[in-house]
Amino acid sequence: AQKVTQAQTEISVVEKEDVTLDCVYETRDTTYYLFWYKQPPSGELVFLIRRNSFDEQNEISGRYSWNFQKSTSSFNFTITASQVVDSAVYFCALSEYDGGATNKLIFGTGTLLAVQP
Amino acid sequence: EADIYQTPRYLVIGTGKKITLECSQTMGHDKMYWYQQDPGMELHLIHYSYGVNSTEKGDLSSESTVSRIRTEHFPLTLESARPSHTSQYLCASSEFLGVSSYEQYFGPGTRLTVT
After folding, report:
1. A45-101 pLDDT tens trace
2. Strand intervals (E) in B26-86
3. Which among B88, B96, B104 has the least Cβ separation from residue A105?
4. Chain B residues touching A89 at Cβ < 8 A
5. Which residues are A82's β-sheet partners?
């Protein structure tokens, strides 16, 4: 069965602090996709990153970085030098490869990040 | 930037009313989805579609129904709204470009409140 666990329900940091959001996943498939989405107070889901199971390279995009480790089934997200605009709910999601038939996403419960000025 | 639209963005309606939430995308994606988001933040898939005239129920049981008559349009209907239907509804579409590339885009959501 597939499952995504985001154990941190809420995190509060002060601006300029670094913060890591944890994501642990479960799947029996060898080919799968992992995602991070940001949901600001306005409610829309903003795509941040997709990682394929066969590509374990870590990625950095500006202040954002992602650490994918298949050995521990984790896909953690770090924000460096956090800013107030980073305040949002962050979702980790998993999609198992089915030849493109459905592309369904299984979401974690989300982590509410509050960055204080 | 994703071209996927939802209307209305906010809806407050009384119990027993019939409502339709609209979702449309201009990207030509075959696959479309409806997710329901509880006030406690969890997102659950309630419906999806492979293409025109194909719809399937998702992982979370829902009293809503959907239709897919045109590729770009995937409306969700509640025949008789109840307070338990109060939630945010997010529409999405996806394009599978091969095993190494796949994207899923979300609309802005509809916040439904049933009084």
Report:
1. 998 998 889 888 888 889 999 999 999 999 999 999 999 999 999 999 999 877 766
2. 31-37, 43-51, 54-57, 65-66, 76-78
3. B104
4. 41
5. none
